[in-house]
Structure to design on (286 residues):
């Protein structure tokens, strides 16, 4: 019921909310937020990098939940929803990696480091790319493929807690958590801009997920109609 | 590239990525919808015959 309500908002509420929030986010990140003393202006990339990472976790969580619902109910609508959300997750993971690299070059001197957090994030990207390739390369209504891919996606989702804990468990160049703790290590102004950016990007991700799900549902409907048309033609001939 | 250059590049990639995906989705949804309408018409006409 809740998911249906969110899905119903995809053309009326989510676009204006996401659009206004994103414009606000750009203004706050580029104008209002104070300049960091050591890193300078390049630190402002945090306001797109962190929200992109959280949006990708959000999208992959939706994928995993939809995969579980598919396995429980065997309704292909959940398989479609999982695929739609996985594409959005991949886009935000890619944006996370690119914005991180663009921050890394002036701060670390290199675009890429085989650091635990960056590597596990790349693995997340590869896991869900493989999920989508496997799912798209088989028939949309193949129950066996949908089941195997769902189980694979649920197992792949376990990389997210690994990414989260990687900076605590291993030596890493990546900055330590600055927000996800009792006393966030950011000044109040930066913290507010960061939290606003997270909400803005997650609202865009929610909108994209609903559109992605619509695309997948339409693809399934088209497949069914093609089957009906084919049956009609063969009956006629 | 200067610090501002990296900042600009990061924001440009972010916005361009999202706009491109949005446009791809809109085009895909429109194409799928038109194919569905076309097929529904064909099936309806066939049923009438």
């Amino acid at each position: 019921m809740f998911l249906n309500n969110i899905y119903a908002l995809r053309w009326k509420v989510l676009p204006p909310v996401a659009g206004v929030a994103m414009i606000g986010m750009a203004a706050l990140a580029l104008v209002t937020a104070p300049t960091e003393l050591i890193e300078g202006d390049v630190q402002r990339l945090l306001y797109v990098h962190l929200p992109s990472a959280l949006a990708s976790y959000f999208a992959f969580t939706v994928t995993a939940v939809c995969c579980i619902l598919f396995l429980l109910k065997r309704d292909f609508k959940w398989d479609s929803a999982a695929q739609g959300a996985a594409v959005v997750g991949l886009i935000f993971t890619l944006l996370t990696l690119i914005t991180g690299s663009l921050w890394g070059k002036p701060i670390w001197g290199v675009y890429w480091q085989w650091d635990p957090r960056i590597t596990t994030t790349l693995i997340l990207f590869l896991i869900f790319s493989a999920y989508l390739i496997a799912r798209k390369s088989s028939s949309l209504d193949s129950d066996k493929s949908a089941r195997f891919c769902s189980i694979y996606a649920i197992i792949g989702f376990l990389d997210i807690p690994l990414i989260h804990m990687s900076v605590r468990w291993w030596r890493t160049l990546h900055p330590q958590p600055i927000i996800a703790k009792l006393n966030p290590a950011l000044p109040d102004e930066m913290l507010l801009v960061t939290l606003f950016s997270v909400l803005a990007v997650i609202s865009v991700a929610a909108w994209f997920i609903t559109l992605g799900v619509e695309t997948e549902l339409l693809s399934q409907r088209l497949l069914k109609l093609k089957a009906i048309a084919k049956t009609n033609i063969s009956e006629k001939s | 590239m200067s610090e501002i250059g990296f900042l600009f590049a990061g924001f440009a990639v972010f916005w361009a990525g999202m706009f491109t995906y949005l446009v791809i989705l809109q085009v895909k949804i429109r194409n799928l919808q038109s194919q569905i309408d076309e097929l529904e018409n064909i099936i309806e006409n066939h049923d009438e015959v």
About this structure: The CA atoms of residues 39 and 45 of chain B lie 10 Å apart. Chain B touches chain A through 28 residues (CB under 8 Å). Helices of chain B lie at 3-48.
